[in-house]
Amino acid sequence: MAKTDLILLHPPTYYDFRKRPGIYGPISDVVPSTPIFEMYPIGFTSLSEYLERHGLKVRIVNVAMKMLKDRRFDVEKFIRHNKPIAFGIDLHWMAHIHGALALAELIKKFHPDTPVILGGLSATYYHEEILRQYPFIDFVMRGDSTEKPLLDLLKAIKREKEFKNIPNLTYRDGGNGIQANPITYVPEDLNDIAIDYRHIMKKVVRFMDPVGYQPFVDWYTYPVTAVFTCRGCTYHCKTCGGSSQTFRKMANRPKPAYRDPVLLAQDIFNISEHLNAPIMIIGDIFQPGQEYGATFLREMKKRPIENHIAFEFFLPPSRNQLERIAESIINFNIEISPESHDEEVRRAFGRPYGNEPMERMIADAIDLGCKRIDLFFMIGLPKQTYQSVMETVDYSRLLLERFQPYDKLIPFISPLAPFLDPGSTVFEEPEKYGYRLFHKTVEEHRQAMMSPSWKYILNYETEWMDRHEIVASTYESGRRLNRLKAEFGLIDQKTADAVEMRIEKALRIMAEIDRIMAIPDPVRRESELDAMLNHPLSLETYSMSTVCEKKELEWPTRFIRMNFFRIIKTLVARRKPNVSNPSPTGSS
Ligand code: B12
Ligand code: SF4
Questions:
Q1: C-alpha–C-alpha distance, residues 358 and 522, integer Å
Q2: What is the pLDDT of residues 175-217, one digit of tens each?
Q3: Fewest Cβ atoms nearer than 10 Å: which of 139, 373, 447, 536?
Q4: How do residues 113-163 score in pLDDT, each as one tens digit?
Q5: pLDDT score of 541
Q6: DSSP per position, 300-352
């Protein structure tokens, strides 16, 4: 087999989590991942497909997943035995800073001449600082769309070693200087790339590595997938590192790039042929305008499919929009993030709608047969106090009472954690928005990830809640919401009791960590922390599904989740990728 050109590695958040896991708290309770954030960026899929289509050999290895699944998985040995032309590591989410740097350092230890490339939103934000501080990283590929520039870079690495004309690239110039080429590769649409799960299936077989390609721990029992409408956003939520302003400043993106709605529908059909599981549409289909949503729904109506489709809305959709969805999709579900019940807090965060339109949307959606509605509330917002967080739970009760016969309205609450997003408006001017930042630099964030609990990892507190109150209000609101869900029959009593018990345990251990952290003698402090945290089950016991069960997030899935016949057919067939211009054809 020809030498692999690129191995893309997804790191764990904290590299040493198997030796001494901290108490990460409910930071991942409302996403499918564990607190190790083992989900790799969906862009790995489009990078791999694009590079292979252009003749390169690419492998994805979810190192975080391998470490989680097998406590004895030897990362050093794995890296030592694999020597591609280059390694790529994602630093998309800042939470991976410790793991990403640790992997890069290991690569250089075993393969000093193999280039290490970092990419993703956080790497984009910190590109110069990363190259200045960490000699084991050679390149940062910036921007939200790196398929083509990465192809250029890999070709340059293989041939002329001339980097000055590669768009979006930051690199060392051979002396001590760092060159940041301008971000000029900013595609206006997403029609030349493909998030193609058929491509991934082929790779799993080629490398015989189902774990290396697995997106999150329970994926093979709950194979939920996502399709993307866009990169970028038209909204400007104040703490979001993916807002319109952040994308403009950081990724030179003046407006979002959308995927053609016909290609988007085809992405869904491709998944549906192989998997009988839910599909999440990332990005509001009405964000690009009415016509986009209408075209997409017209396409969907042509081929009715039974998979549950989850729609994410940035604004409550009108009755008319919901009617169009209901007549096109058999099983439709809704996700919306009001963030707080308090309209003032919501407005300060950047969401421009009141409770009345949201409640009207809930009533309409139920009336039109929506299978499930998830409401996401958040803790750590501008103007939000401890009391306000508790009132969000009270508001959830009002909603559950009002829509009582419908037992599929599900509220969730979780903290803005572990980090306020780098590059977000609040991160850039914390004082102006009532925030205090504890960690700003890359190294400060890396160090923070080694802290014993998420209270010390948090990189911010607000004028309205200090770190202690953010933590306390998270567990207390989680406890109250859990009881509410049991009372209204959204979860069974056994699940509620298990969550309640985990919250109790987490609170006790958090208090114990606070006591140890106050010990002035650093040697004694460290040895007490070691004794407490060095327990093989502490990750599962204190940081997973603390304020709600992962199962609560799951949309219905058919009993047989995979269409094995179709999957085998796909594995042997040569298929064109679902892009507007499918040539040149590659090996998959
Ligand atoms: C969809 C989404 C998700 C999905 C994940 C889908 C996925 N697997 O990628 C879900 C809902 C699961 C999710 C979870 C989380 N998310 Co999120 N998410 C988003 C959202 C809305 C869109 C992301 C997006 O558009 N990606 C498309 C493009 C930009 O990325 P991409 O295609 O994956 O990758 C391209 C580039 O980034 C780059 N690239 C990426 N990696 C690499 C590596 C190399 C080597 C190279 C060269 C290039 C490269 O090239 C790729 C292809 O061109 C953004 C907000 C926004 N508007 O951007 C937030 C956002 C990215 N998420 C964010 C956060 C904080 C999280 C969580 C940590 C939240 C939490 N506490 O649970 C978790 C982490 C989960 C995990 N990793 O396990 C922050 C990140 C801020 C930061 N800088 O750290 C953002 C910016 C905003 C927000 N607060 O939600 N998220
Ligand atoms: S949080 Fe707001 S700004 Fe960020 S991606 Fe969602 S809608 Fe856009």
A1: 51
A2: 779 999 999 999 999 999 999 888 898 898 889 999 999 998 8
A3: 536
A4: 999 999 999 999 999 999 999 999 999 999 999 999 999 999 999 997 799
A5: 67
A6: HHHS---S-EEEEESSPPPHHHHHHHHHH-SSEEEEEEEE-S-HHHHHHHT--
The CA 320 to ligand 1 mean position distance, Å, reads 31
- The pairing of strands 435-437 and 58-62 is unpaired
Report, in this order, helix, strand and coil percent for the chain, each rounded to 5: 45, 15, 45
Could you tell me the domains of the chain? 6-190 (3.40.50.2300)
Alpha helices, DSSP H, located in 430-466? 442-448, 454-457
pLDDT interval class at 587 (50, 70, 90): very low
Distance of CA 327 to the CA centre of its chain: 31
**CA of 231, nearest ligand number:** 1
Distance (Å, rounded) from C-alpha 250 to C-alpha 126? 10
Instruction: Please state the atom number of ligand 2 nearest to the C-alpha of residue 350.
Output: 2
Q: Return phi, psi of residue 414, to 5°.
A: -155, 160
Q: Which among 121, 169, 543 is the best mutation to test ligand 1's pocket, defined by most ligand atoms within 8 Å of the CB?
A: 121
Tell which atom from ligand 1 comes closest to the C-alpha of 90: 43
Q: pLDDT digits over 222-249, tens only?
A: 889 999 999 999 999 999 999 999 999 9
Q: Check residue 74 and give its pLDDT.
A: 98
CA distance 170 to 126: 11
Q: What number does the ligand 2 atom closest to the CA of 243 have?
A: 3
Rounded CA separation 220/214 (Å): 8
Contacts of 192 (CB under 8 A, 6+ apart): 50, 147, 579, 580, 581
- Quickly tell me which residue has 């890296």 as its tokens: 79
Alpha carbon distance 257, 145 (integer Å)? 10
Strand 225-228 versus strand 460-462 pairing type: unpaired
**112, exposed or middle or buried, with CB in 10 Å at 0-12, 13-18, 19+?**
exposed
CB neighbour list of residue 53: distance below 8 Å, 6 or more residues apart: 577, 582, 584, 585, 586, 588
Tokens of 574: 């040569």
What is the C-alpha to C-alpha distance for residues 108 and 90, in angstroms, rounded to an integer? Answer: 16
Name all residues whose Cβ lies below 6 A of ligand 1.
8, 27-28, 31, 33, 37-39, 41-43, 46-47, 88-90, 92-95, 117-122, 141, 144-147, 150, 226, 231, 233, 240-242, 282, 417, 421-422
For the four alpha carbons of 495, 496, 498 and 499, in that order, the dihedral sign comes to positive
Only one residue has tokens 């829509």, namely 403
Predicted TM-score (pTM) of the model is 0.96
